[in-house]
Amino acid sequence: MMIDSDILFPSDRKTKKIAQSLYKITGNLPIVSPHGHCEASWFSKNESFTNPSELLIVPDHYIFRMLVSQGISLENLGIPTHDGSSFERDPVKIWKIFADHYYLFRGTPTAMWLDYTFKHVFEISEPLNSSNSLTFYNHILAKLQEPSFKPRILFDRFNIETLATTDSAIDDLKNHKFIIDSNWNGNIIPTYRPDNIIDPETKEFSYNLKLLGEMTKEDISTWKGYLAAHASRRDFFIKHGAKATDHGHFTPKTYNLSEEETSNLYEKIYTGNFSQSDSAIFRGQMITEMAKMSIDDGLVMQLHTGSKRNHSSLIYNRFGADKGFDIPTSMDYVTGLKPLLEAVGLSNKITIIIFTLDESSYSRELAPLAGVYPALKLGPPWWFFDSFEGMKRFRETTTETCGFYNTVGFNDDTRAFCSIPARHDFSRRCDCSYLAHLVTTGRLRINEAEDLAEDLAYNLCKRAYKI
User: Fold this and answer.
1) Is residue 217 classed exposed, middle or buried when 0-12, 13-18 and 19+ CB atoms within 10 A define those classes?
2) How far apart are CA 449 and CA 465, in angstroms?
3) What is the CA radius of gyration of the chain?
């Protein structure tokens, strides 16, 4: 598939010419990926990726959710079940299903990312379909067996400067330590994700708390001991290069309770004698507690909100989380974030980056909030809106209210390693197109657009995440 050099640029000649000139500034800048879900083990072990299906299909819920929507089971796509039974293990069969249904992705960002990957990573110049499925598979398989396609070499080839993983708060970070101790200079950094020791409704929550206490030598039966354990783990992550925390907080609802109230609440949580209401309050209180800790230790805070996660209980119970069944839903950020912002919103010592799947909140709530509270910044379009139209809507609905400099650039948030160059390239093209439109309509000077193009592609991200 030949990728048009002017893809995503405006169709009118004047605006396109400006977009092209801006893209010359950004197109070859290094990639900073401050939030994503690639595995540190890929780079610590530096072993060849096994086959095309395991690399491109099995980890990518953008791909398999579309196939599931047409009645294809996750089992047939090689997605492991909890008990390890009844799932397809033949990568050629998985690839054939994918190729037979590749037409389903026409017009979607997934097709753009994949076409870019096939062309620029694997040097395949024709579109994937049923008839060339095996040819594609064998070609990519042969490439993956070459030394130049090992993870560390691809990392350098993709011009990645920094790649952040997302790690459980009780992860031992052994793969990160191995990378740090190796003679490779790739910058792979962890991110502190404490959801499984903050959400009392998480599976194995009690076991996770016990492990937290053992790892930190803190008395997690008390509120103060529990907070001290978090502080200890955060410090451990920082020593391994962490720059941020990440929180999959369903709602933006936060609390700022008194010491006595939180201590009493934690006792209910720790003993298991809590209601759903107690659980929700505890999650909201812990967002504020994590923010207070960020003021102390400097970790940037990321909130991913507005997603009704694991909408299908059948899928969740059989396959677990992150299987494509996270659905956008409406949120109330003005009310929900108020306790958090009352506590830390005016501080210059913390950056809280908020992501949402509730697009309707951008112009109505989030841009106005980010446009006045120094602690709050807007994360880029996420999940379903990580697309040309989604990025365009994001700029159109936020810029006039909070400007560009209360946003934080782009991150790819991907599990699909080979899609990283495509995602960043398309984001840069989208921003260049938007900036060009502002120039042609008299809202930006060309030199301002040139500065902004570099900032949106590179500088804002490094500044926000202190990289």
Assistant:
1) exposed
2) 23
3) 22
CATH of domain 13-49+150-465: 3.20.20.140
From residue 290, alpha-carbon distances to 89, 230, 295, 313, 336 in Å are 41, 9, 9, 29, 16
Cα three-residue angle 371-375-380, rounded to 5 degrees: 65
Strands 160-164 and 187-189: parallel
CB 439 within 8 A of CB 382: no
Name the β-bridge partners of 304.
Answer: 355
Q: Cβ of 455: how many Cβ atoms within 10 Å? A: 19
The enclosing H or E element of 171 equals none
Classified as helix, coil or strand, 244 is strand
Nearest in space to 223 (alpha carbons), one of 144, 297, 285: 285
Give domain 50-149's CATH architecture. Answer: Orthogonal Bundle (1.10)
Residue 268 vs residues 184, 224, 279: alpha-carbon distances, Å: 47, 15, 9
- For 48, 56, 146, 147, the CA distances from 143, given in Å and listed in that order, are 10, 14, 5, 9
**How far apart are the C-alpha atoms of 174 and 76, rounded to whole Å?**
33
Cite the residue boundaries of each domain of the chain with CATH code 3.20.20.140: 13-49+150-465
Q: Which residues pair with 163 in a beta bridge?
A: 33, 188
CA nearest to 23, candidates 428, 410, 443: 428
Cα separation, 365 vs 252, in Å, equals 12
Q: Give the position of tokens 């994918």.
A: 98
Give, as one character, the DSSP assignment of residue 123. Answer: -
Cβ(268)–Cβ(221) below 8 Å: no
> 355 φ, ψ to 5°?
-110, 145
Each of the 467 residues of the chain gets a pLDDT tens digit; together they read: 456 899 999 999 999 999 999 999 999 999 999 999 999 999 999 999 999 999 999 999 999 999 999 999 999 999 999 888 889 999 999 999 999 999 999 999 999 999 999 999 999 989 999 999 999 999 999 999 999 999 999 999 999 999 999 999 999 999 999 999 999 999 999 999 999 999 999 989 999 999 999 999 999 999 999 999 999 999 999 999 999 999 999 899 999 999 999 999 999 999 999 999 999 999 999 999 999 999 999 999 999 999 998 999 999 999 998 899 999 999 999 999 999 999 999 999 999 999 999 999 999 999 999 999 999 999 999 999 999 999 999 999 999 999 999 999 999 999 999 999 999 999 999 999 999 999 999 999 999 999 999 999 999 999 999 99
* Numbered ranges of CATH 1.10.2020.10 in the chain: 50-149
Residues 251, 304 contacting (CB under 8 angstroms): no
By C-alpha distance, which of 300, 246, 341 is closest to 464?
A: 300
The two tokens of residue 427 are 């984001």
